[in-house]
Design brief:
14% helix, disordered N terminus, 166 residues, alpha+beta, 3 helices, 7 strands
Length: 166
């Protein structure tokens, strides 16, 4: 006759007359109701002069316009589209008097006024006289600051959106 040995692993419970404190497990969630808009611009300005590189969001190589916007906002936990064309249908369109530092300017392409082709981040808010930081494929060929009221940009302006207050 064979004997089978069965081993059960049971928890051992100790009782004590001391009052034991309950341990609470907490999980930290980084929720920021409002991101400091000035810090976004200070971060973006670190990349002034970074070369324009098509289809790049790599600060060591360079940026295209949407890569730059994507990279800057990603640093603050804001996920945005990687392609400028995807900005056509996102965000609430703001009136010029509502423009704030950190809002995103959306422009048509310079060849086609039905396709979104460029983005920038407002760094000095003053309605249609605002200034914006962007990765330019034009003369500058780098991350630069430009006035919105230049003819090249006013005729291409599509909308300004706030992605921080949503």
């Amino acid at each position: 006759m064979k004997l089978r040995l069965l081993i059960l692993m049971l928890p051992i419970i100790f009782f004590s007359s001391f009052k034991k404190e309950e341990k609470k497990i907490t999980y930290k969630t980084q929720i920021q109701s409002e991101i400091d808009r000035d810090s976004i611009i200070a971060f973006a300005k670190k990349y002034l002069g970074t070369p324009y590189v098509y289809a790049s969001n790599n600060p060591e190589k360079g940026f295209d316009c949407s890569g730059f916007v994507n990279y800057v906002f990603k640093n603050y936990g804001v996920t945005l589209p990687r392609s400028s064309g995807e900005y056509k249908n996102i965000g609430k369109k703001l009136n010029p008097e509502e423009f704030k530092v950190g809002d995103i300017l959306v422009f048509y392409g310079y060849k086609n006024n039905t396709v979104i082709g460029h983005l920038g981040i407002i760094c000095e808010a003053n309605g249609m006289q605002s200034k914006f930081i962007h990765a330019s494929s034009g003369k500058a060929q780098c991350v630069t600051i430009t006035a919105l009221d230049t003819e090249h940009y006013t005729k291409r302006f599509y909308k300004c959106i706030d992605v921080l207050s949503e």
